[in-house]
Amino acid sequence: MPSRERIEHFITQVEQGRYVEAIEEFYTEEATAQENLESPLRGRKLLIANERGVLRSFEAVRTVPGTWYLLDGDRAVIRWVFEFIRRDGHRFTQDELAHQRWIGDRIDEERFYYDPAQQHLGATLRVRQTIGKLFLRAGFMRAKQRSSQL
To answer: What pLDDT, on a 0 to 100 scale, did the predictor assign at position 120?
Structure first.
């Protein structure tokens, strides 16, 4: 069972952007991690390789300060908020819960719960704003054309 100090040290590592180092230090050799309903990844080496791949695919990843957690015996739930910047400049924020089972002072099972639509919301909002501007311009031009015809 982890101590509160151990979980808080883990959170500090992640908030400092030390994602790979946190996996190395806090996960068991055979740890599993699962994203929503996807198949879990098994083994710390695979989790590290996956994390490195995710980090390489983005321009930047940042953990938003203000993380909170719940601890009950060997189970913990951590609320993370991450900001991602894709290489094309697209930004999104992902708010998620991580449910963990610890063995001693290491994470053995972890499952992340989040709405994947968060990854696309920024793009959707930009499209809506652009369409709104186009409609306003079109409406303005029609009104302007009408007034010049009077």
So the answer is: 79
